[in-house]
Amino acid sequence: AQQQAAEKLPRPKLVVGIMVDQMRWDYLYRYYDRYQPNGFKRMLREGFTCENTFIDYVPTVTGIGHSTVYTGSVPAIHGITGNDFLINATGLSINCVGDSTVQTVGSSSNAGKMSPRNLLVTTITDELKLATNFRSKVIGIALKDRGAILPAGHLANAAYWFDDASGNMITSAYYMDELPGWVQEFNAKKLPEKYLKQDWKTLYGLNTYTQSLPDDNPYEGKFSGQETPVFPVKTSGMLEKGFGVLRRVPFGNSYTFDMAKAAVENEKLGQGVFTDFLALSFSATDGVGHQFGINSIEVEDTYLRLDKDIASFFAFLDGKIGKGNYTVFLTADHGAAHNSQFLMDRKVPAGIWKGGDLMNELNALLEKKYQAAKLVSRFSASQVSLNDPVIRKNNLDKESIKQDCIRFLKDVPGVAFVVDMERASEASIPEEIKNRIINGYNPYRSGVIQVILEPGWQGYALGTGHSVWNPYDAHIPAVFMGWGIKQGKTVRQTHMTDIAPTIASLLRVQMPNGSIGKAIPEALK
Ligand code: ZN
Ligand code: ZN
Fold this sequence. Notes:
The protein is α/β, with parallel strands linked by helices.
């Protein structure tokens, strides 16, 4: 018997996730007057913006942010507790997407020994695959491996990321044994070289960058070989050391858009019967931000260029998929702090945190008392990890070592709170911070102590960093546009974990299996 022709479930043809690495929420407005009409402004004008979206865990870093946006979950559940982290039982450090069982595809370097296997839950992209019996296509693209791999999930058709050694987009044997013809052709164009040979000059006259400090200022890092951190940046002279510099100039974002367009074109994304998903992450904003800090002309120019690239990409999608037939969301994995010295020079309380040096001091102290070296195995993102294998071997009292560390850290300048992560719920600290520690705490993959710094303190002397709970790192943009999305905004507090359940509701697919977020009803038609 033949099935009756019935009304089909309406869904967008394509979902495009745009992660802007290190984009603070206020960048939507800091440079607003200089954005042209069809990039960020189009999203704000036609779409729905959640103006108070927060990250609900510490530390606020890239691997976790990409995982949380796509899973609606937190490190306690999804298992990605950092860009790299220790497996406490073995004491071994792993990269969040490191996978020694797979080979690089597309280069002879080791940059492709990566997969999503360390992520313990499903992503919204996985759920779309499951919901359509694998007939949807999912592709992740970024310069950073983790920016491409974690959003694309376990069931992705492909994730592609950048290889500094060859200047190619590569993947791993987790996904395929050979790069598709179109990716080989894309690589053969040698776009990174073409971009870098242009040198980085500002889009407009230097004196028009009035949202930023002067080009030459004492708070910025330099490219190697540069005497002062000023324009033009001679990227043409930086090619002999490989193509890694692409990660620290806005060309890296333009190149990622080139790859995204090639993927839509060649994989016919959004041009078939089933909804496809393109997960993009723009890594160069993070590279530029770290090196120059948020008051730099470099960052301002990078966002003005990104705005133009976004506008051009939307125009491309309007042509290929049709305006209103695709859904876009734009968000970030974390924000960034003001440079601490810059704040101090202007009488704002701040400081430079010396976490790494403290680890040596702490270990020397512990060695005297316990007669064992390197009892602290890691001190990163203000988290202290103890060396479980050494503690076991020497039959030492872990609890007593932990308490010694806590006592020591409480007296260090810049420290607001020192929290025993196992007992975070009992700590006398504000609920907001407590919840973020608990959400970030995975007993198998986290440290045992979380240090909470005073506001304004961070570990970068030049440029900037991120990883703390404070609004500058944890307040991110969350803007939706296109099919199924209302026009408008909310200032109600929403959460990074709400993005995946919102997209799940839009697509009418199950939310990811570790999701603790809530759909944002105001955004949906
Ligand atoms: Zn990041
Ligand atoms: Zn970063």
